Structure formats: C-alpha cells, structure tokens
Amino acid sequence: MKMRNTLSVTLALCIILFITLMDNATVGDFTLVSRANWGALPPRQSLPSLGRKPLAIVLITQTNSLGCYNNTSCLDIIRKKQTFDMNHLGKLDINANFLIGGDGNVYEGRGWGYQSEEERSYDVKSIFISFIGDYSQMVPAKEQVDATMELLKLGVQQKKLSKNYKILALRQVTNILKPGVHLLDVIKTWPHWVPIINLYARSYLRNNIIKDLLFAHILNIEMDHLLLRSLSLIIGILLIGIFFTTANEDLIDNSNHQIIKLRPDEISAANEFTRNPKDLHIITRTDWGAQPATDSPRQLKVQPATFAIISHTATQSCYNEAKCILNVRVIQTFHIEAKGWLDVGYNFLVGGDGNVYEGRGWDAAGAHTHNYNNRSIGIAFVGDFSYKSPPKEQIVTAVRLLDHGLKTNKLAKDYKLIGQRQVAHTQSPGDKLYNVIRTWEHWSNNP
C-alpha cells in the first residue's frame, strides 16, 4: 500500500512537471513563459482578435519600470504591469502582446492572436513587444535582444508575421517617447527596421487621415486616394495647425470634501524642522529616470508664483528611494498615457524617504489644479493621507522645499499656501495631511 502511494505521488509530480514544461515552452533559443505560468489575471472581457492573416508591423515599446534580470523579479514586474494597465489605464488586459525580460525569457501577454490597446491606428495591424525596463538611461541586455529576434523568427515560421514585416518604435507613430533612446539605437540596427520620421511630436498632427498616410507609406501600398482625401487637411495644418498646443491637460476629476478637527500631535509634527537648505535633497528628473515630456510645457504666467498648492497622489506611500522612484515613474506614466497630459502633472513630489522628486520644476505650469496651474507651484505628497498622517521626514522636506522656493524668489513673499480641496472638488490632500498644512506659515483660509 505504501509503495502504491509513493508511485502515485511520483506520477502526480511527473505530470505537474510535464505540464509546467509544456506551459514554459522552449522554442529555439528562448523560453516562452505562458500566461498561466506567470499568474496572469483573466481579461475583463473577450479581447478583439487580430485575425488569421500574417501581421505586417511589429511595434517596440518599453514598460517604463525597473529592469529585471531573473525570473522572480520579472514575474513580479509583469504582474504589477497587468494590474496597472487594467486598474489605472482602463485596459482590458496587460497591453503588450509579448514582454521581454532581462533574464532572456519571453513572457506571453495577449499573444499572437489578440489586439493591443496601445495605439488605435495600429492595434489591428501590429504585434506590440514591450521590453521590461526603462531604456532612456540603461542599455537592453543582450539576452533581451536575442530573445526578441528569436520570437520574431518564430512569428514568421508560424505565419503570425509576414515575411516582409516592418519594425517600428512606438515613438515613431505616437507622441509617447517610448522606447528610450538606448533601446531605439539597438532596434535601428535590426533587419526590417523602417526609419520613418515621427509625425506625432505635437498634438496638431494626431489625425487619423495622417496616420493612414503614414501606415500606407510603411506598407508601400497605393496612396493616391489617401493623398486626395488629405490634401486640404495637410495645407490647413501647415498654415495654422502649427500654432496650436494642447490645453486640456489640467482638467481633473475630483470629489467633495470635509474638514476635520486638528490634533495636537499633528501640529507639533509640522513644526519640528530646522531651516537648513543643505538638508534639502532634490532628485532631478534625470536621476529618477523621467521619460521626456511629450511637448514643451507652458511657462508660469505669474512669476514668482503666488500660490503653493498641496495635494497627495492617492497612491501607495514609499519610504525608501528605490520605491519612491518607482512610484514617481508610475505616476508620470499614468498622467501621460491615461490622462493624456504632456508630463507628470506636479511641479514637485515629496516622498516618505525625505526626498523631493522634480516634476515640472519651478518655472513650468503644472496640470494639478484647474484655473490655478499658471500661477501656482503644485507639490504632491506621495501616498494617500485620508486616514494616516505623513511621516515626519515627508512633512519636514515639504516645508524646506517651500522655504527654498521663497528664498530663491520662485514663490512670492506673500504667497498663499492652500490644500487642493480648497479650490477643486476633491478630497486631496487627504484629511490628515490637510490638518498638518493648516498649521504652516503662509496658510490661507481664503484663497
């Protein structure tokens, strides 16, 4: 009986191992990790099909996350990426068809059969491949490049890709600057690369007819009918379109608020600081790995700024630099890709690690508070402070940042300090943080 049980357990383990090996299929010189094996959530609903014809375009992008170089860290990032795409960007599923890890593995996203939701004009015609990481500063690993080339070779063999498919970077067909320049430099050397000019660097060229023209050019198809359709539009764009810039980025969805009673411990926390500018540490956009803005931001119309507006990001808090950098990158991605803004909306973000993270900086108009962006500095506390107070380090750093702005003439001597909820329909910056800032210098009850 004992021998029979042992054999049964051994057989079960062999079956599990076989299923795992089948799911994680080794194809050519790379391993394709299935959705089941990285623990994918099911899509919100049925995904639109790409059809049966071989696809003509491969679009390369990046996740804008930290890189990963082993299976464990890659799995963690992909799961978080799917959650972010679905919960924050409103997608049906993780957006990419495939993701490439620095461990040399290919991770199945939507696979060969289903459309992405990355760029509407290309979703029905393209496979989207996303490199895990941010390649504005780091270089893709050789293992990633090799795995991608093997995946593309497999796509042709299985007739998922046309033999004459074209490779493009997402930044060539949208105003989103992905992938980063270091990955862009690599894919420019690949076979099938198409060196077209990006027509979407500014908002006035985002038009479906222009996209049709570009797509026709890429595929070398007949364009006469498209040229006839769009000739008058192109003339109009050249004459007047160039003078327009995006102006809708500072529209924010908000909700009602209430004020609660101030606690003595929150008053003392706000007052415990020393005004030593040497203690202020501002991490620049370069150092936290910001992606470039999709367009040049407008400058403040009123300088020095007459308002400092405090908000919170309503995200998870962070208490070390690595986590805060990741949070700030995610916030920027959300503002650009979900809200359609040209950059992260705040002028500065303050982390629970005691660092300031540069957003749009002192001189540019933000996208945080409608009707106040042109005359204010928007400072966001990273975290949700509806029910908990920020740590002392975060409070002290924000006060020092305001003091620095005053001393460098970026804030007017009589500037007004307010919470976002005072001038917008929102709970921000949360009841707990709102109680703290009411004790600070320059606080104004009547903006």
Automatic annotation (TrEMBL):
Domain N-acetylmuramoyl-L-alanine amidase: 42-180, 295-430
GO molecular function annotation: N-acetylmuramoyl-L-alanine amidase activity; zinc ion binding
Domain Peptidoglycan recognition protein family: 30-174, 280-424
Keywords: Immunity, Innate immunity, Signal
Region forming the signal peptide: 1-28
One Pfam family from the record: Amidase_2
InterPro entries in the cross-refs: Amidase/PGRP_sf (IPR036505), Amidase_domain (IPR002502), PGRP (IPR015510), PGRP_domain_met/bac (IPR006619)
Biological process annotations from GO: innate immune response; peptidoglycan catabolic process
UniProt KW Protein biosynthesis keyword: no
Family: Belongs to the N-acetylmuramoyl-L-alanine amidase 2 family.
Name of the protein in its database record: Uncharacterized protein LOC105360762
Lineage: Eukaryota, Metazoa, Ecdysozoa, Arthropoda, Hexapoda
